Amino acid sequence: MAEIVNLRRARKDKAKREREAEADANRRRFGRTRVEKDADRDTAERTIRTLDGKRLEPEKRD
């Protein structure tokens, strides 16, 4: 026989899992220190400068 499932409980459990997943994503996105954010920004800027410096033809800006 099949297991009886309470649909209201299943819906609440699903909503809880979604909230927890969103909270985890927000912790990863916003739960960093200023030093970590600055380091990531500096790394990104350094990468862009390095790639721009290695271009054979400069980018045309209008």
Structure characterization notes:
There is one protein chain. With 62 residues, this protein is mainly alpha-helical. The chain is built from two helices and no strands. The mean pLDDT is 90.
Tell me briefly what this model is:
It contains 2 helices and no strands. The chain is mainly alpha-helical and 62 residues long.
Low-confidence stretches: none
Query: Quick one: overall form?
Result: elongated
Task: Give the biggest beta sheet.
Answer: none
Mean pLDDT metric: 90
The fraction of residues in strands falls at: under 5%
Number of helices: 2
Quaternary class:
single chain
H/E order of the elements? Answer: HH
- Find the structural class using helix and strand composition: mainly alpha
Number of extended strands: 0
Q: Using only CA atoms, what is the Rg?
A: 24 Å
The end-to-end span amounts to 72 Å
Helix content: over 70%
Write the topology of this structure.
Blueprint: H1 7-30, H2 34-53
Sum up the structure in keywords.
71% helix; 2 helices; mainly alpha; 62 residues
